[in-house]
Amino acid sequence: MDLMILSLLWFFTLILLSSGDVSNNITINSLNTVVRDNALQALLHHRTGIVFKVPTPMNLSGIEVSGKRIRSKTLWRTGVDIGQVHVPSGAIAVPHVKRLIIVYQSLGNWSSTFFDIPGYTLEAPVVGFQAYDASNLSSKNITELGFNATDPITIRFILEGMKPELKCASFGLNRTVTLYKMVSPNVCYGKTPGYFGIVTPVLESRASTGRKWIVWLIVGGNAVVGMMMVGLVWLRVFRLARNKKMGIEDGEALGSVRVGNTNMPFAAMVRTQPVLETG
Ligand SMILES: *[C@@H]1O[C@H](CO)[C@@H](O)[C@H](O)[C@H]1NC(C)=O
Ligand SMILES: *[C@@H]1O[C@H](CO)[C@@H](O)[C@H](O)[C@H]1NC(C)=O
Ligand SMILES: *[C@@H]1O[C@H](CO)[C@@H](O)[C@H](O)[C@H]1NC(C)=O
Ligand SMILES: *[C@@H]1O[C@H](CO)[C@@H](O)[C@H](O)[C@H]1NC(C)=O
Ligand SMILES: *[C@@H]1O[C@H](CO)[C@@H](O)[C@H](O)[C@H]1NC(C)=O
Ligand SMILES: *[C@@H]1O[C@H](CO)[C@@H](O)[C@H](O)[C@H]1NC(C)=O
Ligand SMILES: *[C@@H]1O[C@H](CO)[C@@H](O)[C@H](O)[C@H]1NC(C)=O
Which positions, given as ranges, span the membrane (predicted)? Predict the structure, then answer.
């Protein structure tokens, strides 16, 4: 799998999750913190290299969590398998640490509570994994890690039958979701830790006309905001790169040329906007 193609798929669609009406008022960020702290606690009783079960609080029962501490060298040499997630060899934790803990979650019946995408239905429980610095377990300052992987991370789902309308969804902590094409059956690819799921568009017959318009409005509005945010991020990345490379005085002249290049991902997004077709 070519990473270039992957990054294109990555920008397929970006929408913002509606805030939903979560009655228990727990956000995915606070879930993440609870899960992380429990995993670090459980880690004290387990050896490096062993997958162990992490207990979840009573009021979050149904969510399955496991953890594994590994050395960075092992991650790079052999990769790591935990739950439905496979990180291939050649991955490096960013920032670099000596040991890390991988925390894996399967959200089970809580999936749609945390990840409710207007216009789409989840087809399998959402799976998440995060990585944290585990070099110093007595440190109160826990660093969340990203991965720099040469080959994509795979997340394998258990599904019955392959439907052409299945899409992979990757969920960001700031309630953004990126939808992209599923290129191999029941498998989604990722570049970094995060939450992943499989969705299908809601069938038209199921939504009443009135409701449909509202969904259209919400999804459309969110898509526009999402695109603007991606635009802003790209603009910022571009500016940073430009300032680094050119310094201030040459910057202006080159600007218009370079902006042309950064347009590509937006164009891909506008062309393939499944959200608006299916509402
Ligand atoms: C949810 O929690 C936040 C603080 O974490 C609070 O400001 C907000 O009012 C709460 N919302 C509800 C509906 O309880
Ligand atoms: C779950 O229980 C813990 C105490 O065990 C409490 O601090 C937390 O707020 C509860 N969370 C929810 C979502 O009810
Ligand atoms: C999920 O199932 C468990 C029991 O297995 C239950 O306690 C919990 O309330 C359920 N969660 C939701 C969001 O329905
Ligand atoms: C680990 O963290 C504790 C608490 O922050 C600190 O006192 C200690 O010096 C750290 N150890 C190392 C090896 O960095
Ligand atoms: C926590 O660790 C990060 C990265 O090592 C560092 O940049 C940050 O200053 C630390 N924060 C505190 C409060 O020690
Ligand atoms: C990721 O790895 C590539 C090659 O292995 C390297 O060129 C790049 O600088 C790395 N990026 C980060 C953020 O470490
Ligand atoms: C999500 O939030 C982080 C900071 O919390 C930000 O850097 C990133 O650009 C945001 N992503 C989107 C798509 O808004």
Answer: 213-235
